[in-house]
Amino acid sequence: MNLQEFFAMGGYAFYVWTAYGICFVVLLANIILPIIQRKRLLRHLALKQKRHNL
Questions:
Q1: d(C-alpha 50, C-alpha 36), whole Å
Q2: For this UniProt entry, which segments traverse the membrane (predicted)?
Q3: What is the mean pLDDT of the chain?
Q4: Among 12, 14, 16, 51, which is most buried by a count of CB atoms within 10 Å?
Q5: Structural domain of 25
Q6: Is residue 42 part of a domain?
Q7: Does residue 39 sit in helix, strand or coil?
Q8: 3 in a structural domain
Q9: Domain total for the chain?
Q10: Could you give the angle at the alpha carbon of 25 between the alpha carbons of 20 and 5, nearest 5°?
């Protein structure tokens, strides 16, 4: 088996690489979205606390 045959996946390359791509995007979203939400929440809480202390 050479590298070209490996990437062709026996004719199923489109489905296999699409599945890998979707999986990668979902995993990346599971890492990035909570970080963004945490930053947004901390910013909101700091603003709320600042308004409360005035």
A1: 21
A2: 12-33
A3: 93
A4: 16
A5: 16-49
A6: yes
A7: helix
A8: no
A9: 1
A10: 20
